[in-house]
Amino acid sequence: ATGTGAGTASVPADLGTPAGLSSYVSPLWMTSGGCSTPDFPLSGSGAYGLAQPGPTAPFGMVQLSPDQLLSQRGYDETLTSTYIRGFSHTHSSGFPNASGGHFPMLPTVGGVTTTDPSQYGSDFSRDSEQAALGYYAVRLARYGIGVELTATERTGWHRYTFPASEAGTVLIDVGQGLGNYVADASITIVGDNQAEGFATVMVHGNYGNSNIVTPMTLFFSAAFDQAFASFGTWNSSTVVAGSRQASGGGVGGYVSFGASGPSVVVAKVGVSFVSIDGARANLAAEAPDFDFDAARARTVSAWNEVLGRVQVSGSDANRAKFYTALYNACRHPSIYSDVDGRYPGFDGAVHTAAGRVQYEMFSLWDTCRAQVAMLGLLLPERCHDMVASMLSRCQQGGWVPYWTLAGHERNIMRGEGISQYWADAFVKGLFAGTDGTAGSGGGEINAEEAYQALRRNATELPPADGETDGRVGIGEYISLGYVPYDAKDTWLSVSASLTLEYAANDAALAVMAQILGHASDAAMFRSRARNYRNLYDQGSGFIRPRLADGSWLSPFKDPSLYSSGRQDAYTSTISMFTTGYTEGNAWTYLWDVPQDVPGLAGLMGGTAAAASRLDQHFAYDSVVADPGQARLLWGYGNPARFEYYNEPGYQVPWTYAWLGQPWKTQAMVRILQDQVWTTGPGEFPGNDDAGGTSAWFVLSALGMYAPMPGTGVWTLNTPLFDEVVVRLTAPYYQAGTFTVSAPGAEGNPWIQSAALNGQGWDSAWIGHDAIRRGARLSYRLGSTPNTGWASAPGAAPPTSAGSRGSG
Length: 807
Hints:
By secondary structure, the protein is an alpha+beta fold.
């Protein structure tokens, strides 16, 4: 196919092997920016994946994408404005707040008459857009220029097709960032076809942490395949023709090719967080020539290797959802080290990642719940390097990371996810070094060092002069058994959810401590894992915040009396952060006890009573009778209590497995897959923080989920596909494949019976050790529930109070 309005370059439908998988990826699917907020509720129609449509390699340092003037996030398919101000080289995918936007470049025609991006940009028609894996194309209507983009791990590629007989000019606006401000920048025109420089973009925090501002400095070296006919720079609004250098916060440069020059120009841009020398080296290593199509082919091949870690058999629609989700789940964390392994550390010095890749942008509150489990299964060598990257941050900065970006801690979310992330990787054997054939070849991770860092984080606060806040309220959590509510403290105002998250983190630490031989620590953390009980109010039947004196925060209003998923139980408002809870309310967090569902059920009056309340949470009878009501009954601003799109609710459908009703897990997950996950722009179920929500879909489609990371337990649901073949990676796995067979899966959501390696299997879970050895899980499915399968008390998954699933 030929990109509409994008020149004459061929756009292959698919490149690389295994054939066909990349063609299922739709980068435009999750680009909607309609963020649900108290002021702009989406009333259940709403979705805001916030992914960028432009090209990137797997976990690429470069995420090259168009930037629209009205969107701080870069691209927003739902904006009525179709205006592009440039194509910048760094983006965060899935977040509602901006970061990066380094070095936006925009092709124009004629001379430079303005340096204001609101004036020099161009409208475009959405009909002229193409977005495929490793490729984006659009026609800039104002200038009649076709733009094509591709990217490798550390380079961004532009191909511009200028109108005939027009002088083509490229603006490089190093003084512009995404929704942030540029503190310092520099550009130098080198020779007759190069431009180099750097920009320090100041990235603001989000969700009550707007005072957090961290610098994100990136260097670039750009080369063009045509010599410049003229060039110049600007500082603020002053343009200086023929100038080769400009420095300051509002600078940029331009290069022109002349009216009689070639109509097609290719630019390749290498970037580095270390230095301009590093950017040059990355460019030389990953872009040895100016062959745009070959660069794209290499990236598509790299993506096909990632996508090919799992082969699924089913309808094209579901395969498109699956492989697009897998694609988006593998965009972050991002590569941070140069081709020679160098990267800037937390201590300000330049370090070298020996034999592995250094990663950055760890949104751990978002990714500890699903993405770590997905990576550990499909890309264990990448997961190994990510844990090693985080441990190096701890070594350099003195504390475990929480939410890091470009060498700085941002403390964006309340709570803590690193304990579950590291414990999950450890329990699944991912601390082991590779044998050099599976990927980066990183060495063994010191498990004891990692554990002691996690233990310190769980028992004391970091130094006051450091960047990391740590487990806020940890002293009171230890002495009182809960984090007390404090309206004056931004963090402690969500004390109930903090308590629940710390308890789940402690459950994961208990497992790690037990395996490492720290029996007394394991007992301590198992005890602390039950701290959720200290906030369960028998009178209301909810988890409630308490004050330091032990009294309940009052007056409490039953959220079920209000027709909103996030009705504040203490006020009449709807908000992202309700009183006592992070991104949820009393209904959301009632079920955030995956480490001890039987204990929670006991507090509710027993298994039957808990199952009845869970039915109420899902509006189970209504959505099973009419699955089309799911979007109307679930989600923020809607009558039911289940928030399908947000991290605290990820694991809730699998809660039924502990209550002896696994057929209800099967029903709820399938309705989510069919009714909530659709493939049109604006139809993504929630923002996709660093790929966390996408990872949820990938795992659920495989027929399994890890509700409690760090235990090695996979809780089962009906697969979405007739057959799933996961290609396992040595040395983390002792077999070549893990296979799930479920004939007729798409039309038959209920499990009738199961077999594991040919033997009848009547449990609602399997252990990771079984997968490690190369399990084959086979199902017989039906169109009606079998309430007998895996419903006996002994069939429920083990709790994580020291248990490790072996299967």
